[in-house]
Amino acid sequence: MALILLTVAMVSLWATVSIESSERFAVFGMLAAGSLAAVSMQHLVSARPSETVRQMVYASAGSLAIMLVATAFTLLV
Q1: pLDDT > 90: what percent of the chain?
Q2: Total-model pTM
């Protein structure tokens, strides 16, 4: 799960630096959906399906926090 959040952080940073501000929010939405999809894919092969909902909540909350910082930076700069 840390790898998922690290990936979200790196792509958010890349989007903030290189993508035009009007298109960044679409990228942030795709990142949020992608992080939940990655957790779902991870649990398809995992032996602990009971932790799926908890990890989805952690992944979505972490991704949201990362994108909130990136969005605030986009709007303030």
Answers
A1: 9
A2: 0.80
